[in-house]
Amino acid sequence: MSKHFKKTGENLFCQDFLIEGALAHSNRFLRNLDKEVNFEQLWHEKLMQIYKGGATLGQPPYRPEQVLKMLFLAYLFGTSEREIERIINDSISMKAFLHISLDEAAPDHSTLTKFKNRILDFDARNDSNLLKEFFDEIIVLAQEKHVDLGFTQSIDSTHTIANVNNAKERERTKKISDGGEGKKPRDPDAKYGVKKTKKVTTTKGQKVEITEGYVGYKSHLSVSANSNLITSYLVTTMAAYDGHFFEPLMKDDLKKGVAKKKETTYTADRAYDDGENHVWLEKEKLKDAICLKNVPKDEDPIARWTKHTTQNEFDAGRKLRYTVERVNASGKKDHRLGRARYLGIKKMALQTCLTALAHNLKTLVKLWTGIPLRGSLVHVS
Questions:
Q1: Are residues 250 and 318 in the same domain?
Q2: Residues of the chain with pLDDT > 70: what percent?
Q3: Are both 40 and 168 inside the same structural domain?
Q4: Enclosing domain of residue 177
Q5: What is the Cα–Cα distance from 255 to 260, expressed in whole angstroms?
Q6: What is the pTM of this model?
Q7: If 225 and its partner were Cys, which of 266, 300, 303, 323 is the partner (CB 3.0–4.6 Å)?
Q8: Do 46 and 130 touch, CB atoms closer than 8 A?
C-alpha cells in the first residue's frame, strides 16, 4: 500500500504570490531556516518508522516532518504546544515554514502529544533514541557546511525544576496516618538535589550555612566555545553527581569529530575536578582546563595531571568556560528549560533534545545567513 498524508499547501489561489508579498515585510528567520535545513530530506524516512503500517492505515496523517517542525516552533519561541497552534493560525511566516496554505488550520496540539508518544514508543521498542539521532545530524551538517567549532569545549549542567507543586506534593505523598493522601509522587523520576550552599545571617546575627536545592532534573551539556553550539547532551535526575558525566560527553564529541586529539581543550567548573576526568583527558590526548579545587598559590595548577597542556593553554581554556553558562541561561530564558514541560525522565530527555535543537538551529541560521531570531513572538508575522 502506498503512503498517504493530508494534502496541505495546495488550496489557496495565488497563495505563493500573497505569501511572497507578506514575507517581504516579516522576519526572514524561518524562511532562511527552511532553505538551509531540509527537514524532509533529513528526517522523513526515519520518522516514517514511528507510524503503524508506515502511515498506510487509517486516516491520512500530517507529514511527520510537518509535525516535528511545529513542535520545534514551540521550543524555538519558548511557548506551549497548545499556544503554538493558536500562534501558527495567526502567522503567515509560520504557515509558510510548515508548508500549509493560508486558509488551512494548523495541526491540533493533541497531534503533537500523539507524535511525541509515537517517538517514545518507537524508542522503547527498538532501544533507540530517534531525536538524539536528529540532533547529531545537525552537528554533522554544521561541520559539512564548514562551521568553525574551534578547539575549546565547555562542559556544565543546568537544572530543570520538576513539573510539580511542592506544597501539593507534600500532601500527596504524606502517609494517610499523618493526615496526608498516601499517594505516589506525581513525577516519581524527579529527585531532590542540592544546587549550592550559601552563608546567611539570621535575625539574631548568627552566620549559618544553608543549602539551596530543587526536585527535578539536570541537563549536562558540552558546548563549542567558538560557535556556541551544543555538541552533546545527557539528562539525569537532580541528584546525579556532575563529575560522572564528563567522560560520556567528551566521548560523544570525539565520536562526532567535534573534539580532536592533541588540539581540543576541555574546560569545566570545579564540580568536575575529579581525578578520573583528568585521567580521561590525558588518555584521549586532549588538553585539560578543568578548574581545580584548593590549589595553593605557589603550585602550578596543571602539573599534577597532564603532560599535554601548557599553562597558557590551561589559562586560555578556563577563560572560555563562561560560554556554557551563557547557553544554559538562553535555554531557560528563551526556550523554557527552567521548568519541566512533562513528567518522567524520558520526556525530560525529549525536552532537553528539542531545546538543544532549537538553540543550535537558531545559532546556525545566524552563522550561515547573518539573520538572527527576534526574541519575541510579537515580531513573527
A1: yes
A2: 86
A3: no
A4: 148-352
A5: 10
A6: 0.87
A7: 323
A8: yes
89 and 172 co-located in one domain: no
Asked whether residue 2 is assigned to any structural domain, the reply reads no
Query: Residue 369 has which C-alpha cell?
Result: 545567513
> How far is it, in rounded angstroms, from Cα 66 to Cα 244?
38
194 in the same domain as 80: no
CB 73 within 8 A of CB 99: no
Q: What is the 3-state secondary structure (H, E, C) of 214-230?
A: EEEEEEEEEEECCCCCE
The C-alpha atoms of residue 318 and residue 285 are separated, in whole angstroms, by 18
Residues 207-230: pLDDT tens digits? 887 777 788 999 999 999 999 999
373 vs 239, higher pLDDT? 239
Which residues, 6 or more positions from 282, have their beta carbon under 8 angstroms from its beta carbon?
288, 305, 306, 307, 308
Give the integer Cα–Cα distance in Å for 235 and 293.
Answer: 25
Q: Determine, yes or no, domain membership for 154.
A: yes
Using CA atoms in the order 153, 154, 156, 158, what is the torsion angle rounded to 10 degrees?
-100
Contacts with 166 (C-beta within 8 Å, 6 or more apart), sequence order? 215
Question: Does the pLDDT of residue 380 top 80, yes or no?
Answer: no
- Please say which residue of 73, 96, 128 terminates a domain: 128
